[in-house]
Amino acid sequence: MDAPEQPRSIQVNPGPDGSLTYLIDVPPEDLPPVRGRDLERAWLAARDAAIAHRWGAVRGFRFVRRDGTHLDLALSDRDARCWAAAVDSTLGLHTNIGLSLCLRLLALVELLAQAPWTRPWFQLARDGAELHPVLWRTAASVALSADARFDESTFRPRMERHVAGLRLASPSPAPSLAANSQAAPSIGAPV
Prior knowledge:
4-stranded mixed β-sheet; single chain
């Protein structure tokens, strides 16, 4: 199997209003996987930026598909801008890894907000959220969809394989974020 084509370049164009437009020569689904620990570090950097009210610029992304069509994605929401600015200040959104990391972070936030089956795998607190390592590992490795999101039908089975790997690799049950529990929650656990 051939490796997905990597972006030859990401062109960044500043706008007169301070906005930034990124021109990317591949679609989101061809961006590379990242490391789970880098995704977690980006999450923490974004959290720190939000606490400091560093919202960042409005950013637009234009992804060019192989057939010449394109996908436009705008980050105008204050929180999304904050997260993108945090990744830009650490890895840079002008790199394929930095861009992949940013989009995966935003896609993970969206998935956690919309998919009830993920709730046993993270805990919310006043100072942020704690995510189970299997979420980081899965979000780092599963491909983004054509619209720069995580497709549940791809994400969930990959997460199940990671959970199975944890259980096989450890003589004790996989860790859990659930209080007073010795086993990891089931992917299909009721809310």
